[in-house]
Design brief:
The protein is of the alpha/beta class. The protein has eleven helices and 16 strands. The longest helix has 21 residues. The structure holds zinc ion (2 copies).
């Protein structure tokens, strides 16, 4: 049974101010990671800094999980019922393959790589939380697994950690994730009650016709016409097959056919690919089925062959109700009512934290980093820069969550 925070007779929950002593270190780590971005499964330097920090705190860890992943386990000394429980807190460490244009003094020193999603901040905040937890072991019972995950960006590091036995090696009752969100006011913690992020799948279709002379179309069959017809009908999936009150996205991202030096040739093949997003399994299944049916339908209409392929990459990230409630209560206790939200609308981006939520109960929260003084832009943009003022807020929420779960 959940108890209301004010009914509990213990010291007040940690606040962002309690994390102020760790702000200089967190800021230095964040900027150092920012200057030295590493792509998924290549986070050797980042991982080494995380390990050194855990070692300095006397927190035992295991490294090499999903190549560069690190899991530190810190046990509290408080007596009581929480002693056998354990939770996991997850931070991602990877950067993106894109150029940086921020002009910051700590801008990327690696051409073509940058921290444009704020994972530098995520890693620094979990390291800061580790510092606070190590200094306040008497405030919690049980064990906190600090999960430093590689390769969140399109490389599925969370799934690899789960496959390599993350939850068997570090058993826990719940797992929590956090991501910065620039549009949300600084210090806000928003924990949606249900869907947080969408599934993220890739689809491909190859239309195979009988290529012919552009002047003599009747001697072949035209894969380009089938592709055109397919694209037009593709957008009927969301418009006509999906319940208007549900969310789905189907987009074309790539087309390839023919040769620009041969405009008088009707190509024998057209290749298309794109993305599909959904907030639940039923919409995801429906979109997969319709994409494949429409590809075969367009092919049959134009007497060509279709080879469609639907590649399931990430499931939707959907918070478990009980853990979303706990995470929201921790936000109320650490940030105050005004900065805690449980009603944030879902976002159609994807997150591999869905693989952890598929294995264990848990929840994922947004950390507001938006402030007029720090125009950090949007994720995955060359001008993006994590707002260091949010470090104490994110780290405080982690610590508050530990007290709420294990206090
Ligand atoms: Zn990202
Ligand atoms: Zn991200």
């Amino acid at each position: 049974m959940l108890r209301r925070p004010e009914q509990r007779d213990r010291e007040p929950m940690p606040t962002p101010d309690d994390l102020l002593p760790f702000k200089p270190a967190m800021t230095a780590w964040r900027r150092d990671f920012h200057a030295h971005p590493e792509l998924g499964f290549e986070e050797e330097r980042t991982s080494a800094i995380v390990r050194a920090h855990l070692e300095s705190l006397g927190i035992p860890y295991e490294a090499g999980i999903a190549k560069t992943g690190v899991v530190g386990s810190i046990t509290g000394t408080k007596g009581g019922a929480g002693g056998n429980r354990a939770i996991g807190l997850r931070a991602d460490m990877d950067a993106l393959a894109m150029p940086e244009l921020t002009g910051a003094p700590y801008a990327s020193t690696v051409p073509g790589k940058m921290h444009a999603c704020g994972h530098d901040g995520h890693t620094a905040m979990l390291m800061g939380a580790a510092s606070w937890l190590a200094a306040n072991r008497e405030r919690f019972a049980g064990t906190v697994h600090l999960i430093f995950q590689p390769a969140e960006e399109s490389r599925g590091g969370a799934g690899v950690m789960v496959k390599e036995g993350l939850f068997e090696r570090f058993p826990g009752d719940a797992v929590y994730g956090l991501h910065n969100l620039p549009g949300l006011p600084l210090g806000t913690i928003a924990v949606p009650k249900g869907p947080v992020l969408a599934s993220s799948d890739t689809w491909e279709v190859r239309f195979i016709g009988r290529g012919t002379h552009g002047a003599k179309p009747h001697l072949g069959t035209d894969a380009t016409l089938a592709a055109a017809s397919f694209i037009t009908s593709l957008h009927s999936i969301v418009a006509r097959n999906l319940d208007p009150l549900q969310t789905g996205v189907v987009s074309v991202g790539h087309m390839a056919a023919g040769n620009p030096l041969a405009p008088n040739v009707i190509p024998g093949e057209v290749f298309l690919s794109g993305t599909a997003r959904a907030l639940n399994a039923a919409t995801r299944d429906m979109q997969e089925e319709r994409i494949i049916a429409l590809a075969h339908g367009a092919a049959a209409t134009h007497d060509v062959l279709a080879e469609p392929r639907y590649i399931r990459r990430l499931g939707p990230t959907v918070n478990h109700a009980a853990q979303a409630r706990i995470a929201y209560e921790a936000a109320v206790a650490t940030m105050g009512e005004a900065l805690a939200r449980d009603d944030h609308p879902p976002i159609t981006a994807g997150e591999d934290f869905s693989d952890m939520l598929a294995a264990r109960p848990g929840a994922y929260g947004w950390l507001g980093t938006g402030a007029p003084a720090h125009p950090e832009g949007v994720h995955h943009n060359s001008h993006f820069d994590f707002n260091d003022e949010a470090l104490i807020h994110g780290a405080a929420w982690w610590c508050g969550l530990v007290e709420r779960e294990l206090g």
